[in-house]
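Sequence only, no structure available. Ideas?
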Amino acid sequence: FLADCTRRNPAFSAKCSEIYRAYVGWCSAAGVKPMSRPRFRDKAQNEHGLQITVRDGYERYEGLLLVTGEE
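Reply:
I predicted one. Tokens follow.
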């Protein structure tokens, strides 16, 4: 999912909730059962090195940009 639907870019950040929602949609389209939100978060941080910060009241993955098929 991260390789297909996101790009690393230090100038951006993405809301954790939006990334997880996109992940669940990606899993549905692929016919795969999504992992739980806590497991996804843990893997994002520990296996992919994503940092989570809180900005404007939202948890965000720093340095991550959610992309669509149009980009």
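The chain is about 40% helix and 35% strand.
Hope that gets you unstuck.
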